[in-house]
Amino acid sequence: MTEALTVELGLGQEETQRDKYLTFLVEKEYYGIEIKYVTEIIGIQSVTEVPDLPEYIRGIINLRGKIIPVMDVRLRFGKEFREYDDRTCIIVIDAENILIGLIVDSVCEVMSIPNEEIVAPPDFNQSENKFIKGIGKTGSEVKLILDCERLLMD
Question: Total structural domains in the chain?
Answer without folding.
Answer: 1
